[in-house]
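task queued by scheduler; priority normal; single chain, no ligands, no partner chains; default sampling; output format set to structure tokens
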Amino acid sequence: MNNLPFFHIHRKSNIENTPSPLIIMVHGYGSNEQDLFSFSRAIPEKFTIISLRGDLEIQNNGYAWYNISLDFNGNKNYDTKKAIESRNKIFKSIEICKEKYNIDNDNVTLMGFSQGSMLVNAVALTYPNQIRNVVSLSGAFDPNIINLSNSDSLRNLSFYVSHGLNDEILPFEVSKESLKILEENNINHVFEEYPIGHGVSPENFKSMLSWLIEKTN
């Protein structure tokens, strides 16, 4: 079985004879696999990159990992069951990539934006043995989809977390407050804030890329 559970696009590493580092990309709500994959132009060619597409089509060429709905008071409700299913399928994708490609098992990075960020956070904290680094952009840590591992491997994780101060989709304070799960478990992380909305500024991207290269050397 070497088929990933999600449609995906792939960039091969330029490393031929030794295992390569892996990046798994997980897009945000309403986007698709091309979104974060656009970053690959600036990411060193030594990385194998797999960009996944959510399996819920919510609009023309826009996909999600789980549904979000609003109640009568305007509060957001999340399909937690589907979110956990997607979390586990993303983890399965990592395992398949390790079998299918020549991957360095100790150099796996997850990168997510918004809803995708919440999922990669959950994957890493639930299955820390398989992951080294997490890039978490404009997201948060949702305890409802995290089955926090008691493994010592939590100490080997590193997170790069960033958020826009003017984010109206997922408020800055919500994201910052959710960082407690990292702080309380002494998990290595960097948190950066930028004067932007729900997105990634050039300065944000440059800082993230520097962090990624340093952590994966």
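post-processing summary
- The chain has six helices and eleven strands.
- The first strand starts at residue 8 and ends at 11.
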